[in-house]
């Protein structure tokens, strides 16, 4: 029987101290992050969604590839995932082969309840958002109805910089599609210490699509999450909590300085298509 796969592009699957970010195609364990690529992200995310349960090969093929694939193909990708889990010094999650049955992602400290509701373990982070006036108005309307009360919104970059002086915030949400690359420049300025915000503050970016240049920019600038527009407030809430929970080590300023902010090429990354083509 096929296990239900209700993952979306914006999901972050949390298993103990490990998080699989579907939008960033990455895995984070404590303070280390590794890029997986779309297919292996979906594969690991699906296994983690069903942590401590045996997943059959047929179910895995259908959920991840959308078609039947050979045992050799699945074995290859499982082997690569195991290497990545070792690379990030993961000691919590393992992927075991169950002969004649399939695979199981094991994490003894995690129950099904903890996996399905990771947000129950995380408090609302205090955050600021920098975007266009229309997006800010949408969020202000939601705040008036009692949602996202912990989030302050700004469409003026000077006002935002003044607010960042307070150091009260755990996360910054930045629209990557603002004119004149204002959003991307702001992310770079934060990471290089050219704002009054903490250089290691959690950052989540907004975009109408997940272009390859933007995904690369996010990885290089240590952006903890990506939310696809039109904005879903529940998704934004979940991404903010996951971003604040993730830990990373700042690189030297020179590494951030070299990252370009003028991302001209728009190449959409479609998760389903990527999985089907592998």
TrEMBL record:
**What is the originating organism of this protein?**
Agarivorans gilvus
Domain Response regulatory span(s) in chain numbering: 125-244
Write the protein's name: OmpR/PhoB-type domain-containing protein
Q: Which residues carry this modification: 4-aspartylphosphate?
A: 175
Q: Which residues form a coiled coil?
A: none
Alphabetized Pfam families for the sequence: Response_reg, Trans_reg_C
Which residues form the DNA-binding region?
Answer: 10-107
- Give the OmpR/PhoB-type domain ranges: 10-107
User: Which keywords are on file for this protein?
Assistant: DNA-binding, Phosphoprotein
